[in-house]
Design brief:
The chain is of the alpha/beta class. The protein has 5 helices and 9 strands. The strands form 3 sheets. A 5-stranded mixed β-sheet has the order 1-2-4-3-5. Strands 6-9 form a two-stranded antiparallel ribbon. A two-stranded antiparallel sheet has the order 7-8. The protein is globular and about 60 Å long. 21% of the residues are buried.
């Protein structure tokens, strides 16, 4: 397969305790990596969730959570805890040698994504200029200078981001002012073809 290959790649990932996850890798290998979490618990990933992403721009990695879908043992609740699921999420990017990724989900998947974010607040964002400016801002005692440093930090970090922040919810969507043409239908499907970050 070539780097831009968009064929689905499927494999089994042993996460210990007798649990083996069914993992699917969809979209362009060079696309923006997204770990997509299904609802349920127990529901498994649907094709519609995967297709809500532009697979020519995103690399969507899905897995059937412990006891769900094609993962084994089926319907098992032994060792099936939120902390175990968080560890499962963390093991997937290292398998692909991915160092930065988005986590997205719907229903239970959005709750799990939030729990993952709370368990892993550290950033995988790396920029030495930002790191140095953060260190300097921590030592700065003049409030006006410190505020100016934080404004500069935000500009630097936003300039480095190469993706559009998305939030999936069947409820109200909150969108940054610098994102336009984002559309989500009432069933929650994203339409990203015309979405741009201004």
């Amino acid at each position: 397969m070539t780097d831009g290959d968009s064929k689905t790649r499927i494999f089994k990932l042993d996460v210990g305790g007798g649990h083996v996850l069914n993992v699917e890798d969809h979209g362009a290998r060079t696309g923006i990596p997204v770990i997509l979490l299904h609802g349920g618990p127990g529901a498994g990933i649907s094709r519609g969730q995967i297709e809500s992403f532009d697979l020519s721009a995103f690399r969507v990695i899905t897995f059937d959570q412990r006891g769900a879908g094609k993962s084994t043992p089926h319907a098992s609740i032994e060792g099936n805890t939120t902390s175990a699921l968080i560890a499962d999420i963390e093991s997937i990017p290292s398998h692909f040698n991915i160092d930065r990724w988005l986590v997205a989900g719907g229903s239970w998947g959005s709750c799990l994504a939030l729990a993952y974010g709370q368990a892993h607040p550290e950033t995988r964002y790396k920029n030495d200029k930002v790191k140095d400016l953060v260190a300097a801002a921590r030592l700065e005692t003049d409030p006006a200078k410190r505020e100016a440093m934080y404004v500069e930090l935000q500009k630097m970090a936003k300039a480095d981001l190469n993706w559009i922040d998305l939030y999936y919810s069947p409820y109200i969507n909150v969108m940054r002012k610098n994102v336009s043409n984002f559309y989500q239908n009432p069933l929650g499907r994203f339409f990203l073809e015309d979405t741009v970050k201004n």
